[in-house]
Each structure stands twice: as structure tokens, then as C-alpha cells.
Amino acid sequence: MTKMKTHSANYFDTFIQVAADSPAKCGEVPPMKGSEKSVANIQFEMISQHPYQYTSDDVLFETYAARQGFGESELAAEREKFFSKGQPCLRASPLTKRYGWGVHSNSEGKVALYSRDSQEYEKFSTDDKVETVKAMRSKRA
């Protein structure tokens, strides 16, 4: 059996700044809409409760797996299938686009959230040792 090519959305020593058109002035906890957790809810819980424990790939796949309802025995095969195609990175996350959170990836690719109005956000935004990229803008005009 041939192994599928894998794509990664991980960043290393990189800070994703909040999108220029985000309405959030500071980091906001994504509100629950109904009983199902949104992508923003799942990503926020994972990263905020476990800073620098997960990579972007971990967060993206776990979010997908939770929303699809995969069982434990399906996860390895589904992860390989998921990353056989390119996936949107955390620059496209609602956390960076809408809710005012910057995402820092350390040298191991593990991520943490920083509120747009925090000193840490400012520090990462001006640190020469960290590559800075902007979150993607919303499609609104």
C-alpha cells in the first residue's frame, strides 16, 4: 500500500496576528450557538486550556474529528486522509479572523493564544526572531 503524501499547516517560530478587518478589540471567548460546538469553540478550548501542547495540525484535525464524530479506532486513518490534501491553516481560523486572538507557534510548532490587547501580543508582533503573518481577511466587502 502506498503512503499518501502529507501536507502540514504547522508554523514554527511564527506569530499569526489578528486579521486587519476583525471587529474584536481584544480576545473574545467564542459564544456557543445552540448545543453543538463550533470550530471556534473547539479550537479555543484546545489551545487556551493547553497552551503549547498542540501543533496547528493537531488542532485542525481534532476540530475536524470532533465535528465528524470519529471513533478512537478511526482517528489514525482519518488523520492520514485529512492531511493527504492541503488544509486551511490557523490564519483562516475564526479565532484570528473574528475573535481577536493571535496565535504563536514556538520552535516545536506548538501553539498558544494571545489577546490582541495584551503585552505578549505586542511583544510577539515586534520580535525579530519570530516571523509575523496576518490572519486572512473575511470575505466581506
Topology summary:
Elements: E1 14-17, H1 39-49, H2 56-68, H3 75-82, H4 94-97, E2 101-105, E3 111-115, H5 119-126, E4 131-134
Helix pairs in contact: 1-2
Give a summary of the structure in a few sentences.
This protein has 141 residues and is of the alpha+beta class. The chain has 5 helices and 4 strands. Strands 3-2-1-4 form a 4-stranded mixed sheet.
Architecture overview:
Helix 1 packs across helix 2. The chain has a four-stranded mixed sheet. It is globular, with a radius of gyration of 15 Å. It is an alpha+beta fold.
- Quickly give the structural class: alpha+beta
- The fraction of residues in strands falls at 5-15%
- SSE run: EHHHHEEHE
Summed over residues and divided by their number, the pLDDT gives a mean of 92
Percent of residues in helices comes to: 25-40%
Major sheet summary line? 4 strands, mixed
Q: pLDDT below 50 for ≥5 consecutive residues: which ranges?
A: none
> Tally the helices: what do you get?
5
Principal-axes geometry comes out as globular
Specify Rg, calculated over alpha carbons. 15 Å
- How far apart are the termini? 47 Å
Number of strands: 4
Biggest sheet strand order reads: 3-2-1-4
Question: What labels describe this entry?
Answer:
13% strand, globular, alpha+beta, single chain, 4-stranded mixed β-sheet, 141 residues
